[in-house]
Amino acid sequence: MYIWSSSTGDPIVYWFFYLLLLTVLTYCGWGIGNNPEKKIGKYARIAIIVFGLIEGLRWLRGPDYWHYYQDLATCFKAPECTPEPELLYSLWINLFYSLRLHPTFGFIFYSSLLMGAYVLLFKRQPQAALWGLPVFVLLMGHTAENIVRQTFATSFLMLAYYYYAEDKRKKMWLSLACVPLIHISGLYGVALFILFVQERIPLKWPWLFVALYCFGYFFWEPDWFEGLADFLGTLNIGETSKASYLENADRWFTQEGSIVNVLGTKAAVASRLYVTISFLTDACIVYFGFLVCKDNVKLHLVYYFAFIGLMIKTIGGDIEILSRFAYWTYWMIPVVIGLIVAKANVIRNKRIKIFILSVFAIRFIFYGLIRIIGTAPYAGCGFIWDK
């Protein structure tokens, strides 16, 4: 059995490919936003191929990687494999196993499908791709590398939004049906999706969203989850692999389930400047994201998903199980960021426009990239040749 480690692989090789990926996605985002629709496919294919290969070839890229590798390699015959797999995921693994391909091809497929579905989100809003594509990697890349099956299911949630935006309802429902058949917790994301699509909840009162975010940021205490944990611990869903989440709710839904405790690492102390910039970034997403999404009913779901994901991350901190729930909607945040930059004309004050761009640049280009160049991610720098 292979164990992931921060010392796996060569940081120089890792950063070469990581910077290459960001450069290619920035180029593709520019191409998608500045070319006629008939040429978008060219840049989409480049993004899919490069992202699929670089991410798909990553080795031991997180705690969950090895058992998903074993799923592909043994078709659930190894001890480390996924217990009680969902129907569609089981069918997929059996199909892949019958092809006698190396598991790496499975991970390339997962990554290619994710980027393919994500790029489609920009078909109706192509100018948002310039920031939306690279920020997706900067903000969510390491999470997507680890939670493989959830990311696989999330690809179909992205496809559902694409079909919703294109008014292809049958394909939208089919995509939604695939999500929980790959990962059962996807019912959460599907339920939210259906709620906002069917009820068409309008976007009103931007300051209400700002107030909710500020309450979560300044006043919410993680200890308040203990009541929820006590309640979940009383539920009984029988003898299933999912029952342990309820039986151990006091661990999963409280600070005991912090990713720091799960990984056995020390918590990093963020600087005051970083904390300030992060708060301003989120505040810009909440308020100005509202402004750029409110007049297009198809973008209401984009905003609600981004806001819910942001709120869960804000009140949940680094509690692992809550971070995983946040991921079902958090992937819309790079889309909202791209929309804010692309539709900056709704902001009449030039100084505010410059302020927003400066905050985003500091948060994602400086803190999200420049400041960490050369460091190894928590799961290491490995590629398949480091096996």
Describe the structure.
- It is a single chain.
- By secondary structure, this protein is mostly helical.
- The protein has one domain (11-386).
- Helix content is 67%, strand content 0%.
- It is built from 19 helices and no strands.
- Helix 1 (11-33) packs antiparallel against helix 6, helix 7 runs antiparallel to helix 8 and helix 16 runs antiparallel to helix 17 (320-330).
- The chain is globular, with a radius of gyration of 20 Å.
- It starts with 10 loop residues before the first helix and ends in a 20-residue tail after the last helix.
- The model has no long low-confidence stretch (mean pLDDT 87).
Shape descriptor: globular
- DSSP strand tally: 0
Radius of gyration: 20 Å
Share of residues in strands: under 5%
Question: What string gives the helices and strands in order?
Answer: HHHHHHHHHHHHHHHHHHH
Map the helices and strands.
Layout: H1 11-33, H2 40-56, H3 65-74, H4 87-98, H5 103-120, H6 129-146, H7 148-165, H8 169-182, H9 186-198, H10 206-218, H11 225-233, H12 243-247, H13 249-252, H14 259-263, H15 272-293, H16 297-316, H17 320-330, H18 333-342, H19 350-367
Helix pairs in contact: 1-2, 1-6, 2-5, 3-4, 3-5, 5-7, 6-18, 7-8, 7-9, 9-16, 10-15, 10-16, 15-16, 15-18, 15-19, 16-17
